[in-house]
């Protein structure tokens, strides 16, 4: 979809959409249109009880007296309550309607709203951003494109702040591209996206200036990564550790670090999962996909920060050579782990990835992302990701960034009583606690591999995949986390 920005104008072909506030009578272009259509706009508003509530849409097909194929009024609520999220949703909703109507081109006008806390340029850019996010499709494996919906080819955004909107959108577009990369990686089937292929795709970030290193099993063995390697040991696919670096900050400035769980497929291993829904475990690399999309976005928008992304990429399979319950492995940190359940594999991958990241980079902070536990959905559903941290300030920054970008996180408790639950009678620790506090004991396990770095863990099992459809996302893999962490960097760690 081609998105452009222009000064307020009328008479373009295709659909015409107007962003309207709640309760206000039509002004500007809307008032013009009402006059040209002999009062049809006001009449339609009245007869369908359309008042401009946020999320509401009024559609007039083939209006008399104007060249537009249809007119859409996009309600965004009261001007004083306007947020970026509301405007993005309006842009997304517009694209959904246009696709269903097989309408290839449209213009959307923003002259009737006060943009509230946002500048007029930002407001227009957010409508475009929502439209772009909704336009994502993953249909490369469908040989018959059944075409229940059309594709929107052009969207012209009319605003009196066209230059400012263009500038703001240039950044947002890079973030959307990063999110699309994350969505693609999560949506890909596991026979296509196995660890070596994932690493290959990460290497393409070189085109935006990211330095990418890939460590194979031999190198990881030398480093002593027995915890990560044990997980991949039952797979014929080689495990990979990918290190991505974007150096946009001051030379020598400590980096911020992001670490991702990349289990390309999680069968559970010898502790085999039941068949129902197992196909969803192709998305168990959602954390790694987010880190990859984030590094892309930071580099593409030339963020003034030094950032590293480290992802552990493996496949968890049952096999004659697979790891067993009862096995004891030695992690790179030297700590030993008794395997109780081979399905608690994500923490084993992250243990070595976190230790490696801390030791090599001594980052300002580490945030890890992982589709780690089913229990996080029992606690929080799919609305919030779980946040666990050893640092109140980092937690607060993440919570605020999450509210601003509508990728929300909720902090859960940690402490010595939970830590005790993963002591083992044979090794330094075991890889599962009991059923109680399953997401918390998983986080306690990770914390044992962080020495003295500010750290946060995001359990994204509920938000990265199989997400509920929203105006800006109809993809199975949501791309969750890219916006959140980009915002964290932009607000606190750049410059
Ligand atoms: N990848 C799963 C967690 C998961 C479940 C993600 C559903 C997305 C949707 C993880 O590796 C896992 O299997 N966790 C176990 C841990 C248990 C064995 C302690 C779980 O949640 O049941
Ligand atoms: Mn598992
Ligand atoms: Zn898993």
Which architecture of the largest domain would the CATH scheme give at its second level? 3-Layer(aba) Sandwich
Radius of gyration, CA atoms, in whole angstroms = 24 Å
CATH topology term of the largest domain: Aminopeptidase
Helix count, per DSSP? 15
Category by helix and strand content: alpha/beta
**Percent in helix:** 25-40%
Detail the poorly predicted runs. none
Ligand kinds: ligand BES, manganese (II) ion, zinc ion
Q: Quick one: how many beta strands?
A: 17
CATH superfamily label of the largest domain: Zn peptidases
Largest sheet: 8 strands, mixed
Number of domains: 2
Q: What is the CATH class of the largest domain?
A: Alpha Beta
Mean pLDDT over the residues = 96
- What's the overall geometry? elongated
End-to-end separation in angstroms reads 33 Å
The percent range for strand residues is 15-25%
Spatial strand sequence of the major β-sheet = 7-8-10-9-13-17-14-15
